[in-house]
Amino acid sequence: MENQTNQLFFTSESEEVTFFADLILPIPVPKLFTYRLPRGMAQLVKIGARVIVPFGKNNGRVLTAIVAKLHTSPPSGYQARYITELLDEYPVVNSYQLELFRWMADYYMCCIGDVMNVALPSGLKISSQSKVQFNPDFDYPELLTDFEETLLAELKKHPALSYEELGRLVGQGGNVPALIKSLVGKKAVIVFEEVKEKYVPKMVRKVRLHRNYEEKEQLLVLLQRLEKIPKQQEVVMRYLRHVPIQHNPELNQKGLDKTILNQDDEISQSSLSTLIKNQVFETFEIIQPRFSDNSPATQAEIKLTEAQRTASQQIMAQFESQNVVLLHGITGSGKTEVYIDLIQQALAGGSQVLYLLPEIALTTQIVVRLQRVFGDKMGIYHSKFSDNERVEVWKGVVSGQYQFVVGVRSAVFLPFDNLGLVIVDEEHETSYKQHDPAPRYHARDVAIMLAHWQQAKVLLGSATPSLETYYQAKQGRYGLVELFQRFGNATLPQIVLVDTKQEKRQKTMKNEFSSILLEALENNLERKEQSILFQNRRGYSPYMQCEDCDWTAECPNCAVSLTYHQRDAELRCHYCGHKEHVPRLCPTCGSTKVKTIGFGTEKLEDQLQIFFPASRVLRMDLDTTRAKNAYQQIIQEFEAGQVDMLVGTQMITKGLDFDNVSLVGIFDADRLIHFPDFRATERSFQMITQVSGRAGRRAGRQGTVLIQTSNPQQTILQKIIENDYKGLYEEEIQERENFNYPPFSRLIKLTVRHTDKAISHQAAERLAAELTDALGGSRVLGPEEPLVERIRNQFLFDILIKIERDKVNVKAVKAYIQDRINDILTDKGLRQVSIVADVDCL
User: Which residues form the Helicase ATP-binding domain (predicted)?
Assistant: First the structure.
């Protein structure tokens, strides 16, 4: 790549060549933009480096762009503007990533700028701010008003000021933009963009003795001199206890964190300041990695059971002929230990490793286990990290500091260039699919493509694989290894179906809890064992309703009811974030009979505290885990036995490992099973099996799972009891083939949006008709209103396209669909319509 860059610059001395760069801009435009390289920059810029460029009318915006290509051909149709600044001496995006960006834009029907915007951490993107400075050439003070004179007087005191700073200084914040506009017209000021890089290294201030006192003789003289100033002498003595330079003078150059001395109550801070002022001590700063507190590896190797060792060997054997292998291992079989063994082998061979997890909740617990093995050689990458932390991991991969990274779906964008192994744990999880914004990618599929380009191997792991993945394995396209023995000879839990319809007839239900579940919880508390309760709905109640007139609290922006959150005493929309106070009276009829209907995790937590007041209950859902370290704190407390019951949404179904959990209760299983989606049966099996697998993971004790249902005879529940994944697969795959659903077809969902329902419907009808004419009625379904037909005041219509995998040129179909979308978006009557394409929709 670098050779390609340098070859452009071999020209004769008499020949002057103008160089151009095709840039990826972080905006939703379909093509690259060509910019001109300033003469002094031409031999420095490299493909994959970041540059700053002006964009928009009158260069009004400043954007961070990635150099995708260097050449000598000017653009046609517009005058190329100059690149403003080069940010990187070396590329931060490598050739594999650029290839990935292009492929994702093409495959997921979006713009390459959308991909770049999601791929790069915010800290690698530039922020800009308008600044104002006095024009030294201005010499017409008689043209100024009083306010303008005041503002100009302030500007003369500073090199430059922002609009906000000027507003504070002159006390006329609302008028500042108009004043600046007037002053620009009079050529009294200059407005420019100050560009700043968001990433800021973490600096640590340290203190050390001046070099004059490093040797023993000088140090003794110093201590004797300070005998008359005991407080200052004590500061020096305290420093020497932390940094024993009397035994090794070289230690002094590393110094001591100033915070250590500042926090010492025995030290006089004024004495420390005096010693610094008198050059006994000197202060300095160093850049400290934000992950420097990672513990070193404490375990050289792990001990595999015979079953795990066999699985690891089979996977390695499969990798001889297959690039992708599925590890189908039941919950609690110890798949993580197998992963660690394979990671160690890959790292020993000099390759990089990416380990993907679907949820931050999983990374919290697994990271601790991995750090015991890999220490600070391992990077961690997920959205709860700050911008600066993510940039440090990114740069750590570029520099080679991190050969192994564990992270969530966005980790597929990291700048790996020597991947040997990619592990996608819980590959069936829907969390790997991004829904908004574009690109609406699936991290599992992107990881497979990334591995393909780098000739790496991919291991997909799951106790309940997606039907698509298992089908590929059964067809021989993927390797298949099975691990059906629980670690430590622990047994699978006993699953019991609780008939809630019968309990309601017998009036033994207490709120949402059956008598059987309450008794089991009480017995568990007596045995000092822990319980997990699963309800896949957060909040206190799904909605509030008036008993007299049937009024229901609804979101003004979306076609959904507002969810009641008791702790914050408010109604919330989980689609747009709208919030309202809880009404004391019905807004429609004035009745006082406004009641909550249904239940969520918050209500279950509240009821458990009433039933078992002496117990300790925690809740883990989106509302309780918004803070950066909230996941970690909840998991640590539960793991340490400080909590008796954990209530949660699907977060608690994913791979968590607690030895003392012997009971799992599952609420509202029927709602999962009967959700109107062709994947509902598969998803129900996966979710209920996964959360059931949290019980009885310790050898010698069988756990219990209680599933509350109004219809215990449902076939899917019997398959869950029998842990019959293969039986489920055989039934579902036949159904999928009959109706041409994945894995026998690819799905593309087009969602048409507009604030006017009639216009949205018109655009959707036209698009569907044009697609039907070309593709046929069997391949185009809709348009239909989705379950939630209005979100953020936009009316939605869905069109579903089914494309056979082996009979149709998918790339040509996507190009045709995009052309039809463009026709609608350029129609004057439909210009405000937006159309979102979701490839491989879930």
Answer: 316-483
